[in-house]
UniProtKB/TrEMBL annotation:
It comes from the Eukaryota. This is DUF4216 domain-containing protein. Residues 124-196 form the DUF4216 domain.
Length: 280
């Protein structure tokens, strides 16, 4: 999709009387119709990926909504889902590439990155032809545009957000694959301001080691498409199927099972429940 994005922007730039600052605006407004027409043209010129073809035809009008989703090593819950719980899993951050201009007459945009912080309100699954699906996060986004009024740095260098200021936008959606998780801690001396705390992916540790470009690619990263779909585990109504279908079942005699149960020591009191964990 990235090459289509660049191709469309380039087609806008070559048009007469188009200001550099208007390219992104026109791209957002016209890309969908352009993409559909471009794929039809490419199909007449030669073979094209069925995956790209299905995306160009748009999603089904029916969608599935969820209250939680696990992706990128994070467990996300919607704001409604976590009401009454001690844990916090609705904080979202997405880093976007943006273009800025020094003056109104500047024709040379300066690329940069902006981190947008928000709260997850809905998880939406879109369905396309061929069984393809796309997961979107719908969020309420805090105001990170107005410095000092909506976002600031505290004396220790932490990012702080004003929860009374949100961004009014008609584009509240982001791809779930782009999202990372944060949680917010209310400031003790400023009620409306909350400090952003970044969350480390579960099971991933920073060993402070430099990676050589000559090293072979780690085996864990060689994931097939099938396994990627398994990793993106969908949490629907909090029910997860733990049955395995990749190995044959084992038959155990009743007397053997009973003898094993006699040797089991109950340890229910040692289990850490979700409601027993302080804000994580």
């Amino acid at each position: 999709m990235l090459w289509n994005d660049r191709e469309h922007k380039q087609s806008i730039r070559v048009k007469p009387r188009i200001r550099a600052r208007d390219v992104d605006l026109i791209h957002t407004r016209e890309f969908i119709s352009w993409f559909e027409e471009r794929i039809i043209q490419m199909r007449h010129e030669g073979p094209i990926s069925e995956h790209i073809l299905s995306l160009s035809r748009g999603p089904s009008t029916s969608v599935i909504c969820y209250r939680g989703y696990i992706i990128n090593g994070f467990r996300f819950h919607t704001r409604e889902r976590e009401k009454g719980k001690k844990t916090q899993n609705s904080g979202v951050v997405v880093t976007a590439e943006v273009s800025s201009f020094a003056t109104a007459r500047d024709k040379n945009p300066i690329p940069g990155h902006v981190s947008y912080y928000g709260v997850l309100t809905d998880v939406i699954e879109l369905h396309y032809l061929g069984g393809n699906r796309v997961i979107l996060f719908k969020c309420d986004w805090w105001d990170v545009i107005n410095s000092r009024r909506g976002i600031k740095k505290d004396e220790y260098g932490f990012t702080c957000l004003n929860f009374e200021r949100t961004i009014c936008t008609d584009e509240p959606f982001v791809l779930a694959s782009q999202a990372k998780q944060v949680f917010y801690v209310q400031n003790s001396n400023e009620e409306n301001w909350h400090t952003v705390v970044e969350i480390q992916t579960r099971g991933v540790y920073d060993m402070n080691q430099k990676v050589s470009t000559n090293d072979p690619e780690p085996y864990q990263q060689l994931i097939t498409l099938h396994n990627q779909r398994d990793v993106h585990e969908l949490v629907k109504n909090d029910l997860i199927n733990w049955d395995r279908n990749d190995i044959a079942g084992e038959t155990i005699q009743t007397d053997v099972l009973l003898s094993r149960q006699e040797n089991i020591v109950e340890r229910d009191n040692e289990f850490i429940h979700d409601d027993d964990i302080d804000d994580v």
